[in-house]
Design brief:
Layout: H1 3-19, H2 30-47, H3 49-59, H4 63-73
Amino acid sequence: MSSELRYTANTQLEHLHARYAGTGHADVTKYDWITHQHRDTLSTIVGHPPLLSYLAIADGEAIGRTKFEMTERMLQPCGPPPKKDED
């Protein structure tokens, strides 16, 4: 692999990481990564009305109620963050 091609690939990857927060990097924790995944999933469900309607019908609730619950779950989709070790 030539150094120019490697530089271009690294530049594109850095641009991707800067543009999209959920793409991760070498220092991302498991909790942060899974939180991004859950938030992306919940925002996709809320942002696509047919999918939101499908879930509301499956749960037997109103669409507005399902949308509200999904939006509320986006705050802490995986529970509170784990305690950090102080070294």
